[in-house]
């Protein structure tokens, strides 16, 4: 991440029902009112996750792309980002996860997940880390306003995000 210490931005359970649809292409950092690109998400499946269960898939090195960073997750992000990634020939990575395997990706890496074609719930935890010196930026969209009030309540624009919900990891 290029920083000395990290703090937790937030964690989240992502359970996809049996038969649940795709998670469209997107970049997580669209949602975060953070003034740094020094962010990372750890994707932690809580069971073995075969391809039929819709594991995380991503476009390797796509954090270099600016196009699509302003798109909220949905049908538009799925089609526009998919087309742009294909045009730019970024490697599409999709693999099953064994129990105990995890994945880390930058906040600007474009990623998605397939449909859960099984009869079991796909259970995942995510933890997002940010540079410990990250500051709250003036939100650029309603999603960032929501994230500000939900995941870093009391933080002030232009100041380090140092709230009770955002502890330094390991400290």
UniProtKB/TrEMBL annotation:
Claim: Iron is one of the keywords in the record: no
The keyword ATP-binding appears for this protein: no
Keywords recorded for this protein, A-Z: Dioxygenase, Oxidoreductase
GO MF entries: 2-oxoglutarate-dependent dioxygenase activity; iron ion binding
SUPFAM superfamilies linked: Clavaminate synthase-like
UniProt name for this protein: Phytanoyl-CoA dioxygenase PhyH
Taxonomic lineage: Bacteria, Pseudomonadati, Bacteroidota, Cytophagia, Cytophagales
């Amino acid at each position: 991440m290029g920083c000395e210490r990290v703090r937790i931005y937030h964690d989240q359970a992502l359970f996809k029902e049996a038969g649940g649809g795709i998670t469209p292409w997107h970049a997580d950092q669209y949602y975060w009112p953070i003034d740094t690109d020094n962010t990372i998400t750890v994707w932690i499946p809580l069971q073995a996750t075969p391809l039929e269960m819709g594991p995380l898939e991503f476009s390797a090195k796509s954090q270099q792309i600016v196009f699509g960073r302003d798109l909220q997750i949905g049908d538009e992000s799925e089609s526009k980002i998919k087309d742009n990634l294909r045009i730019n020939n970024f490697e599409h990575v999709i693999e099953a996860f064994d129990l105990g395997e995890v994945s880390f990706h930058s906040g600007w890496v474009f990623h998605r997940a397939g449909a859960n074609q099984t009869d079991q719930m796909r259970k995942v935890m995510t933890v997002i880390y940010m540079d410990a010196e990250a500051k709250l930026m003036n939100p650029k969209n309603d999603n960032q306003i929501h994230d500000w009030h939900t995941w870093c309540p009391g933080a002030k624009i232009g100041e380090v995000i140092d709230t009770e919900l955002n502890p330094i990891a390991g400290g």
